[in-house]
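Fold Annotation — chain and its backbone
Next Lines — sequence and tokenised fold

***
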Amino acid sequence: MEPPDTPGQRVYFGNHSSHLDFIVIWSALSAEERRRTRPVAGADYWNRGAIRRYLADRVFNAILINRPATDRSAASASLSVAKIAEGMGQECSVIVFPEGTRSTDGEVQRFRSGLYHLCQLKPALDLVPVYLANMNRILPKGEVLPVPLLGRVIFGAAMRLHPDEDKEAFLERARSALLELKDK
């Protein structure tokens, strides 16, 4: 399936196994969609060094969130979701990784609740699952240079949070929509 190219705010959510992930999703979008799509990324990584800061700010227009190593509190997560919603404004879409961290073995981990809470703040969002195949082998964790292997970007059908949908049911439905793309 091709990435959507119609007006409207959306959240592209994918599996996360490499620092290439948001770049690969972003580059698969049309030029118009890229201009209005902001990746959400960890400030601790992208603020390290002038080149990373320049790329995050000037090239990708990323929404950088703080990921405290020890504080996984609801208040901390809520601040991050509010910052993402604010960064989206009324026009921008975002790229997020609901697992919250990179998978080391390529398997899709359990989704954290941020995607659900973002939909609570912005219920008209279209949610587009994006499965990234082989990124964990192309740029494994801890490596700097990509390995010349083939990868795939597979876009799924858009979905939305149902009214009164339970958080756990929604997160499992979103994760399942992503996993269904794995074998396509």
